[in-house]
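Re: Re: token formats

Sure, here are both.
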Amino acid sequence: MILPIVAYGEPVLRKQAKQIDADYPKLSELIDNMWDTMYNAHGVGLAAPQVGLPIRLFLVDTTPFSDDEDLSPEEQKALNGFKKVFINANIEEEEGEEWDFNEGCLSIPDVREDVKRKPTITITYLDEDFNSHTETYDGLLARVIQHEYDHIEGILFTDKLSSLKKRLLKSRLDKISKGKIKVDYKMRFPNLKKSR
């Protein structure tokens, strides 16, 4: 089932999400619905706060990036078929020299900006079967994970922009929060009663 994606301005996007356990109600159904929602919106990642739930859950499928001809064959291979669920994730370490990459977000449609992030991360998380993992990722893979991880920490990519960029974007962000934007996927706006 496709869920509405909450738009910029919804308070849930600013909450630090809570850990869950294996007894979380209808978890596998929620994960299936989040995959459906993400693919319907042509995303490569989706976090639970983006569907209105303040829990530490996000998922990533970077396969669409694997066709990017600007990437090295090694990076294309790493991105192709990378599909994972991250529960109760914690980034243990971020290393390297920050690099810029143009990011967007399903909760902030039609806004794309260069964001600086460190290239290598080590993350601990549980998979959908609640098996524990500690893994290290780099490059674009690390970036997608960092972006989704920020969502469960209540951080949006626009928070990482300069104060000048934030001021320039303010009116566009206000329009998004008021639902004055056209999107081709289901969204819920904070200042409107219904999703559309």
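Second one below.
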Amino acid sequence: MSYSRQESVERAMTVFWQKGYVGTGMRDIQAALDKRPGSIYATFGNKEGLYLAALTAYTQSIVDTLQACSQADNPLRALKTFMRSPLLKSEAETYMRQCLIVKTQADWLELPAGIQTSLRDALNSLRSGFEAVVLAAQQRGELSAEMTPEQAALWLQGQFIALRTLATATDDASTLAWILDKVFNDLQRQ
């Protein structure tokens, strides 16, 4: 079967998400994309090029969602819903509970410089998205105007990463929900 470029990127993203950048071999990619190496190299250059395309698509998806949260009538409620959804993935989708960016960062020392740079850029994009939500929440009176948006965004990003990582280690949805509630209660009390 011949997949479009977008479908190929999405299928490769799943493999990278499941196995990490370092743990994914070209045979894994070939199997997922049902393409010969020559077709993959012609389209993406190499494994790094394909990963960067997947990372870009993943990051843009989260940034788009954060932008939608910032434009919602209740930005914090929208953000909480967004942060909760990956925590509830089924057993078969456990890999999706963790952030693809964080999963890849775990192999930091083994990553090519281009991917390290792209990961930093992705994290900065996410932080900007969290900051937009904080600013919108301040404008709507959900958060104190005295809160520093940059610091709150960095804190939220850290909580996002921590929750996504914890979600791979537990299936206890009630504990994860309690932690998420605490994150938002703490934020609103600042």
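The chain is about 75% helix and 0% strand. Residues 69 and 75 are 5 Å apart (CA to CA).
- S.
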